[in-house]
Amino acid sequence: MLDILKAEARKAAELIRSHEFIRIFTHYDVDGISSAAILAKSLLRMDKRFHLSFLNGLNNGNLDYERDELTVFLDMGSGYPDVVSEVNSDVLIIDHHFPMGKINPTKKLVHVNLHLAGLDGSFELSASGTTYVVANQLGKNKDLVGIALAGIIGDKQKIKGGNAEIVREGVAEGYIEEKEGLLIYSGKLKEVLQISVEPYLDFYKKEDELEEFLEKTGLDGDAEIDNLSEEDIRRLSDAIVLRILEIGGSEEVVQDFLGKRYLLKAELIQNALTLADVVNSCGRVSAFSIGFGICMRDEKFLERGFEIWRKFQTELLEEIKRRKEEVKLANCIRYLVMDDAPTTGPIATILSRYLYSDLPFVAVNVKKDVAKVSSRTTMRLSEIVDLGLVMYKAAEKVGGRGGGHRVAAGANIPPDKVNEFIKEVDRLCCTVLAK
Length: 435
Known about the structure:
This protein is an alpha/beta fold.
């Protein structure tokens, strides 16, 4: 599958080599941060200079670049043809979101995106995976495969298609170790279960339920997860599956954490899930440089990264505990409207995957001058409902912008149009779900 991309990746490499200075814009989540680290490592090894900025999207279109530079968009760009068409420099897009419309470049354009090869970037190849493919056309950069896997896991992708090829290469090269077990954080069992977000187990501030859970499984809460025996892992896995199904989780999410653990031999944080979550937490609280520094293997950022992660996990669990009672049911969607919440995407992800997995889920976070939208659904429902298209159409109708993947998408809309937007999303979802 990756062979299809390599022709465009080679063009990307040629374009990069033709410039001495590269201007990079990347998304602020783990997939964007890990993509930036992969490209930055590759450029440093080529003695190329670059300037990197983290963005939450291209909605405002205000980009600081020079005409004679190469402007690179990572984990963004494919859905903003109008913005990209106005960039007066050579442009490289490395993305996995569905392309929305035709780009009319003012100068050279190379667009590396799995969708353009007729394949699905929603769950078969992340932006970090796509950037890794480009990096290996620039030089010997296979040691960066662990960073790519962090982005893949953090973006809730499947280890199939291009992602599976990347993992196989990492294992073959000795940079990734696969172990039977659970895709779960490292640490003491009790502490991990209390703050776990992926999988979400709803044990936060429920000490009695957690003690009962551990007693039934016959496991020691002070035991290190990495030191559990195969029999202990089996019992823990069975108990977690039951817990997820009991609280309303989708059967699909069970498969996301069962069967494999990935250890990243070249990274500062070897547990792939922990690395993904630490970096993602840094991005979500605008501590981009900390997450980026960890991906760049700079140890001085590690302690601060873990502090941010633990604080973010706790605040997220508090927010979920409060917000789950505010979820409303429309005809064909469940939705949540929040005012100035600390985060939107992670709340939408957890509520949709673990508590309300029966219908597409939409979370709206109203800020001062914009309402930020995150929508999520299950893989099964995404075969019927394309959330990327729904967000695009509904946002456009109310004077906003939206798009994304079939299973996860977002939008920015005017705050006074939230009710109209929700009604339009519900109508669009009903149109296909009622068939």
